[in-house]
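We include the pair:
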Amino acid sequence: MKEIIWIIFSMLKFQYALITTTILSFSPYYIIMTLIGGFLSVYIFTQLGSDVEKYLVRKFPKYFKKFSKKNRLLCRLRRNWGLFGISLIAPIIGIPIGVALMLTLNTDKWKVIKNLSTSILIWTLLLSFIGYFL
């Protein structure tokens, strides 16, 4: 039961779960659980993302204007950072938010899953090594 709670925690707040893992008990078991939660989160939110977006567009059509400040910000982020740059900051801002941001910029779900999974692996290795040597 504890493992399921840990996976759900890491699905929603990946960076906090990883930092807690490395600070409290540097256990490879919990680091792997955090990785599983991150990967599951990317997969689930990527699969549900387009359906949720379609529902929100139907429910709140005024919010999704064609030319809005949000759309301009997204275009500026994509132009300056690219999809890989957005995927690198996605675990920090939250995986569900990062997935939603990437799905608005790219419709290829496999590319989103691949980039975000790579980003989660990089952040896990980086924070685990920093936590281990501190």
